[in-house]
Amino acid sequence: MPEAQTSAITPAQAKGNLADDLLRGADAIALFVFGDVKHRRKVYYYAGEAKVRMPTFRMGNVICARKSSLLDWIERQERAQ
Question: What pTM does this model have?
Answer without folding.
Answer: 0.76
